[in-house]
Inverse folding.
């Protein structure tokens, strides 16, 4: 919806260079912006696109103000400031309250009158759906779940049972929250399943990506704290505890019973083995996994970026011959 | 449901130290147990929690019996014994037979009268659903499938076509069983799809995790043998054969046409390339993949656990300079 | 459906050695073929199975013609030729036009009369479904989507919003096309979500595997070009551009804003970091990821295949002691 630059500046604490009565009604990247667009510059990598932008206004750092050919909204953190503005200019869709006739809600469940249940939704025994919750098409909320106010389940999300979620969560399609953990005991007759009886507790303002899985606990609960962000195709094992504001990029995974601190970040395909504790403010690099307790904040890494195959194969050969090299040095030392 | 310690001891072959008429009605971890809880101690790592437990009884090894402050059920394999007891104390939910009015069953399909079809289930042409099967909400069983007795599909599981499953299987939400394998032939005009015509055969007592995919065969079938356990977000390619009682942890994958033996174990993010054979009793470590036939049982590994990034980057630099080091040693040897 | 060898030869440009009036009605592997089967030999690895095949006819290279015990269809690329023949002998299922009574189609959507909408399908506001499209059970097409003619969505595919797809695409169960990308700005109060407003554009003849996720763009669109093939459980981040005829094997992933060229191939668990450009005709090996721009076609690799754990652990120890070895060589050089 259209909003004036003056109002944006006031509301989000920016200095405005330009006409406060100009309005923006959409957002766009620097090169694709039009005369009604808000855009932003947060990284020097895109600075060359600034001079030719056709935007109505750009959110940028005070130091870049002089380079803007159009109105400028100055903020020390232009990316976060822009993100907040976008949520106002292009708000998420709103849904009229109501339960679609094809949705199936158990008699023992409680659904707030302001909630919207889309086609083919299922809500199970004793579950509670909070105010303004959106359950998108095909979403299944099993028994004994509690969904806090203002949560949005985009479509085809599955909560098998016993999941408690705080407020304002966003859950993307195909996410499976609270399925059985992987608990099996080996015996002479094969694996015996350990029934998974714990639940899953998710805090406020959590976002979980498409086709990500978070298992319920074996006995006690799996816990995802406030403000956690998990990307697509991630896996969180049973009885994991993810600390507040930790973020995990796509295809990363945490094995069972591991505790991850606050504000940690996992790059794509990163992870951690089970039964360890990772302190706050740890960053785990791409395709790297942590194998033991981490007690010092910082960045942890153990992956090799790909290089031309012929060179890599030779390098692997040298790696395999380090022992021979050590032996040759030993002989030289003896002489 | 409540059960006496005496009955547990008799039924599961334990020695009981304590009152056989005491009963347990729930299970809990050592620290969270109450006066009606059964708990267990299987690992020395948790032994310090034993002395203060408030449980009604603990399942543990005979050697630990003296340390229990409460009634003890002694068993050589306390974890497996406890797992079996839990299945009795906290049995999985049971479902009244019947087909929900929103389920769509093809006229040519056969559904056992004892089966439970939840809302929005679909059963396709010529498929057969066995006795006591539970098809949870949104589950799609395509044409030409045969589902054995007592299988449970928690919710939103998809079997596109031609899947045959034995008895007592458990299939978690989002699992896709029998989708097309990845078969394409490169031509001058681009990829040509090889139609995937084989089926998928799954044995008895198999459990497959949330959002895991198992492809159908290209011509012959993909096969998962009895007792196999596959965790979440795993991928099994077309024409793979997984031997009985093999277990795969989260995010592991087996590429097409590979044969995996019995009782193998894949740790998280582990895997195998296509068109190889892995013998029985092979363990593949975390984030490691097998690239050729494995003929000897044992543990296979090739991953580096993450370490502080600065040290790792230096180490990668040294790795890249092994050739230079070899050259320096060569020069020294010449002297 | 039955087809004569003569017709196959004419239609697919093969030389036929054998009776043109013989017919095939199914396809099979060399060892499992019967007197009505077409089979093929494309790799020397399977040549020993040729002599005993019971097939009606074999598609193979001219050089192998003399070794066939049965009728032979000679083609320089027997695998691609066979793939095209299979599509004729065993065509994909066809579906009668129509919308199942349980499907929910928004009043503002347009569905071609020739399309088939299976049970529990949802089509959202302003979306368009083309001619002969198959939307399998549980498929959700959100608002503002355009689905080209002859696309097939097998079951439980989810398109949250704003996805445009060309013709003849095949989308497997659990695929999520166009969910929000992972865009978050860190602030003192935690992560702020960057609303994801871009769409997803998919070209013609694209196939996307089960439980794969392709995110919509943050502002501009994510783009998948014509003829791309993506296997199961892959992840394509927001604003990625995948060039025509690129193929990605299972569990591979491309992080946000990366551009991948034409005819690239990613092996299983391969990938690329975000914000880079990969030129045409690049192959990325198994479990390897590209971390910076690639400007030369060729194969890129950086993974170690698993080996017996004891040997690997020793090797890791030697790797960690390269610095010590360098120091020893330095000392020797000083002498």
């Amino acid at each position: 919806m259209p909003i004036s630059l003056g109002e944006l500046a006031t509301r989000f604490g920016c200095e405005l260079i330009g006409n406060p009565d100009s309005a923006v009604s959409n957002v766009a990247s620097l090169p694709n912006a039009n005369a009604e667009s808000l855009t932003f510059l947060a990284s020097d990598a895109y600075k060359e696109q600034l001079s030719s932008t056709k935007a109505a206004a750009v959110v940028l750092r005070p130091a870049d103000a002089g380079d803007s050919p159009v109105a400028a909204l100055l903020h020390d953190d232009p990316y976060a400031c822009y993100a907040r503005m976008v949520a106002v200019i292009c708000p998420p869709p709103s849904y009229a309250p109501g339960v679609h006739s094809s949705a199936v809600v158990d008699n023992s469940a409680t659904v707030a009158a302001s909630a919207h249940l889309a086609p083919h939704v299922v809500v199970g025994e004793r579950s509670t759906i909070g105010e303004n919750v959106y359950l998108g098409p095909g979403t299944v909320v099993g028994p004994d779940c509690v969904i806090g106010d203002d949560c949005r389940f985009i479509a085809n999300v599955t909560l098998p049972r016993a999941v408690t979620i705080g407020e304002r969560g966003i859950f993307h399609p195909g996410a499976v929250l609270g399925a059985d953990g992987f608990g099996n005991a080996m015996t002479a007759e094969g694996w015996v399943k350990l029934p998974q009886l714990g639940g899953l507790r998710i805090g406020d303002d959590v976002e979980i990506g498409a086709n990500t899985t978070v298992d319920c606990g074996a006995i006690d609960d799996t816990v995802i704290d406030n403000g956690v962000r998990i990307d697509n195709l991630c896996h969180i094992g049973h009885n994991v505890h993810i600390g507040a504001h930790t973020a995990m990029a796509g295809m990363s995974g945490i094995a069972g019973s591991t505790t991850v601190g606050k504000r940690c970040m996992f790059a794509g395909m990163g992870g951690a083995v089970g039964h360890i504790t990772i302190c706050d403010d740890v960053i785990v690099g791409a395709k790297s996994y942590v194998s033991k307790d981490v007690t010092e904040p910082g960045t942890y890494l153990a992956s090799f970026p790909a290089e031309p195959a012929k060179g890599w194969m030779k390098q692997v050969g040298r790696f395999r011959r380090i022992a021979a090299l050590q032996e040759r040095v030993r002989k030289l030392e003896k002489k």
